[in-house]
């Protein structure tokens, strides 16, 4: 998302190359042994924080930095609680729901379109893909759905679903489920769900981007 935002303003061009880590090509293995990887001229980076810092230093416009520590704080533990839940470290969704509720409560009092302002910032680029993983993977593996009454969170997701950068970079439901299915501790999919989330090339990619009826069409 960050690269796409910067590219829209003409400060960089980029290519995304997908890698099958089960059979990585020799060219990739010479560069790194894990994803993601940023290669720019002779520079090769594999640490997420270093990649972010490098992009900001070399392509500073537009600035995606933020200083809203309230928004930052409510997002800190959401993904960790989701990971505990989906990997069955915690058996119930209560801890995840508590974190989602905190985010929702913040968003319901937020007057901006996104977390910190009316444009996407670093925090949005970090959290929106994570919320999409929570939405898709929790439903696939745990039959968990974000409650309809978390209107602030759903309005936030609706803004993302209407945003070209998010839509362009969002992984399909099948890709998200496939990624989590390969992790240790994840419960197996039922046979019916295996058919839904199959990576068979003949099946059209799915993207969960609908929102509950309680979220009005104009986002008000």
From TrEMBL:
SUPFAM superfamilies: GST C-terminal domain-like, Thioredoxin-like. GO terms for cellular component: apical plasma membrane; cytoplasm. GO terms for molecular function: chloride channel activity. Residues 12-60 form the GST N-terminal domain. It comes from the Eukaryota. This is Chloride intracellular channel protein 6.
